Design the sequence.
């Protein structure tokens, strides 16, 4: 009986530790909403990546949803009012006329949408292995940038760094 009580006590303590660790891993992403890129109107509480979590409305102003013939759904990021970056596996073999890009909301097929005028898939994309799984979508008309629609920030890298080696380094995982 004592060993059963001891085991339950240890289990209870372990559960308390795990709950404490989970709570402490919460990160509040906030920034200055007047920034020209990468910042959203509302702060977002981020607790996990795997499995995702519900996004607060207007918390990721650069994020878009991509619809192909009103069915499939992929994500992307606004690079500028006319350009969106996404995964090649989402748009490879797809006609631009089939693509709508939605921005300014966290609801499926909501907010403002634009149609694509062209799609550029990485020339060395390999569908079986997802190597070079990147593509650009040019929109037929640009998004109007606002508090709820902004471009994502792209790091500034000098031409000398780019010319000297591959940047970022191959097989880099962040």
Sequence:
């Amino acid at each position: 009986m004592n060993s059963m009580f001891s085991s339950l006590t240890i289990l209870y303590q372990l559960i308390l530790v795990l709950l404490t660790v989970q709570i402490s891993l919460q990160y509040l992403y906030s920034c200055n909403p007047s920034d020209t890129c990468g910042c959203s109107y509302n702060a977002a509480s981020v607790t996990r990546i795997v499995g995702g979590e519900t996004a607060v409305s207007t918390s990721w102003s650069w994020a878009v949803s991509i619809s192909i013939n009103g069915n499939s759904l992929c994500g992307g990021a606004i690079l500028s009012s006319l350009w969106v970056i996404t995964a090649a596996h989402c748009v490879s073999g797809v006609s631009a006329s089939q693509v709508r890009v939605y921005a300014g909301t966290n609801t499926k097929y909501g907010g403002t949408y634009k149609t694509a005028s062209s799609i550029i898939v990485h020339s060395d994309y390999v569908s079986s292995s997802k190597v070079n799984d990147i593509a650009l979508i040019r929109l037929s008309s640009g998004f109007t940038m606002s508090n709820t629609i902004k471009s994502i920030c792209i790091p500034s890298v000098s031409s000398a760094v780019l010319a000297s080696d591959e940047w970022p380094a191959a097989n880099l995982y962040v």
About this structure: The radius of gyration is 21 Å. The chain is about 20% helix and 25% strand. The chain has a mean pLDDT of 78.
